[in-house]
Write a structure and sequence with these properties.
With 172 residues, the protein is α+β, with helices and mostly antiparallel strands. It has helices spanning 6-17, 70-81, 113-139, 142-145, 150-153; strands at 23-24, 30-36, 41-49, 54-60, 88-92, 97-105. A six-stranded antiparallel sheet has the order 1-2-3-4-6-5. A hairpin with a 4-residue loop joins strand 2 and strand 3 (41-49). Helix 1 (6-17) packs across helix 3 and helix 2 runs antiparallel to helix 3. 22% of the residues are buried.
Amino acid sequence: MTPPSPLFLAVEQTFALMHWTARRVPTREVLEADFDAHHTRIRLHVQAFPEMNAVAVGTTLGHDIPDSRSGLVSELLMRTNLELTIGAFELDFDAHRVLFRATNIFPPQAVEPQIIASLVHSALAETDRLTPFLTLLLRMPPEELGRLNLKLFLQREDLLPPVPESADPSLS
């Protein structure tokens, strides 16, 4: 068994610094963790790619996307992605799942725990923010779908999680 890369050790150190509990995936430089967010419980996957000095953070939303709604879900994700600065949502058509992914490439010997923590926070926040929109879209009766304006639908503020009162002091 090869020892973990310095990059993966930095990921583990970030989780320790943030007091996040995670599981190490055997034989891979991957941590998995579960977080309770405002709308849902989120499974997070963090992978180190030492050959390119990159860290990728991903989540999978817990919805099964039926083929009959994949077009609308794709439009929902595209419209959401237009507003994102970090990461993007994807629809895995084969697995019928929505994913969120964000990656950062670090300069050599310059892995910042704050950036790793920020990737995790972004993935969790965006996944939690999209969850109620996706839930409602999947539960909507077919007769309402024809009248649905996704651009206006995504402007609903009543579905957004509350904004945290203060930033996490452990990031400074």
